[in-house]
Specification:
The protein has about 350 residues and is an alpha/beta fold. The chain folds into two domains: about 1-65 and about 215-345, Alkaline Phosphatase, subunit A; about 70-210, no CATH class. The protein has helices at about 10-15, 30-35, 50-60, 70-75, 110-120, 170-180, 185-195, 215-220, 235-240, 270-290, 340-345; strands spanning about 1-10, 20, 20-25, 40-45, 85-95, 100, 125-130, 135-140, 200-210, 225-230, 245, 255-260, 295-300, 315-325, 335. The strands form three sheets. Strands 11-10-12-1-13-14-4-15 form an eight-stranded mixed beta sheet, with helices on both faces. Strands 5, 6, 7, 8 and 9 form a five-stranded antiparallel beta sheet that branches. Strands 2-3 form a two-stranded antiparallel ribbon. Strand 5 (about 85-95) and strand 6 (about 100) form a beta hairpin. The longest helix has 23 residues, at about 270-290.
């Protein structure tokens, strides 16, 4: 028995974006996908507003979600032991308290210089930088709270979204101080000269902490593997107990393989189509060969997470489920509200 769960981040846009009144998806040469999905059932699956939480909830209990910051800290090699609370950090642009830019790009060197400034008063946090992303860790434990994602702050007053609880006074003071001191930083002065948006607001979000979680493979009573062609879901499969493999040939029969791939939405629309054609040829071609003489169950999920830190208003993705064995769903629901229950029912 072959079991595959294939999640395609951002590829839901291929089903939505039109060219000459047809979805871009229809223009892709996808013979392997068509062969695998010929008798598949299509519908909608509820995911959530944010990428990591959506896929964590697909394989585990929502109450066990440890936060985006903790999940991303798992791939850090520089954060010290003993940290209890984690945050993601970004530098934003504000004018008179109103956030006007959120998707700023800094080099790791620039980020380090800005971070050295906001942490020079011994604010008590450690940090790690990797490929333009910052994870901050504190030795103290804060009450569990959610904070607005940076893109959702645009055109809003950031002070309206600070923590209300007194336990977060240190965090609020850090953010407030950054809003008045970072403007004069040499990095920002150079960016002003170049006409680039400056990072004069230090924003913490995605709060997380370690939690005990029931491993997916134990619950399913099957080995579970994971392979990805990017790092957008970094930390999620590791925390859930999936064994990361370098290529599909390491897949073991009767186990579950989670395959993840993300679309680069910054490319031209024509390259979106080419990206799926490449995935179909290089990945789904191999999956098809594995399934050609065996029983199989495959769940495809097309979502609209165009960026790792985006918050979606439409929380539904598109799914296609196919199997050549029983139990086949007789009264198949077009709208799956609980993906975790669906997987437990048809992959156990």
């Amino acid at each position: 028995m072959k079991n595959f769960i294939i999640t395609l981040n951002g590829y839901g846009l291929l089903l939505k974006e039109l060219f000459r009144s047809k979805p871009l998806f229809e223009y892709a040469d996808k013979s392997n996908f068509q062969n695998l999905s010929e008798k598949g059932r299509w519908g909608y699956i509820h995911l959530g507003k944010t990428l990591e939480k959506s896929y964590f909830n697909l394989f585990a209990n929502e109450t066990d979600f440890p936060g985006e910051a903790f999940l991303r800290s798992l791939v850090s090699k520089k954060l010290p032991d003993g940290l209890k609370t984690f945050f993601l950090a970004e530098f934003l642009t504000h004018i008179e308290g109103k956030v006007i830019e959120t998707d700023l790009i800094f080099s790791d060197k620039e980020l380090n210089q800005l971070l050295m400034t906001v942490s020079e008063d011994k604010t008590g946090f450690s940090y790690d930088i990797c490929d333009g992303k910052v994870v901050v860790g504190y030795k103290e434990r804060f009450p569990s709270k959610s904070m607005v994602f940076p893109p959702s702050l645009k055109n809003r007053k950031f002070k309206d979204y600070l923590y209300k609880e007194k336990e977060f006074k240190k965090i609020n003071n850090l953010i407030l101080k950054s809003s008045t001191t970072l403007y004069e930083h040499p990095i920002n002065q150079i960016r002003l000269d170049l006409g680039e948006p400056i990072g004069n607001l230090f924003w913490l979000w995605g709060m997380g902490e370690k939690k005990d979680v029931y491993q997916f493979s134990e619950r399913m009573e099957r080995k579970s593997f994971f392979i990805s062609f990017n790092d957008d879901l970094q930390g999620v499969p590791e925390y859930l107990g999936f064994e990361k493999i370098p290529e599909i040939s390491f897949y073991e029969d009767d186990s579950i393989l989670w395959i993840n791939n993300s679309l680069d939405i910054n490319q031209e629309r024509s390259l979106w189509v080419k990206s799926f054609e490449k995935f179909d040829s290089e990945v789904l071609g191999y999956v098809r060969s594995l399934c050609s003489n065996d029983d199989y169950r495959i769940l495809f999920i097309f979502d609209s997470f165009s960026q790792q830190n985006r918050v979606l208003t439409n929380q539904w993705g598109v799914y296609c489920f196919m199997t050549n064995v029983s139990p086949k769903p007789l009264r198949f629901r077009k709208h799956i509200k609980n993906g975790k229950m669906f997987i437990e029912k048809f992959f156990i």
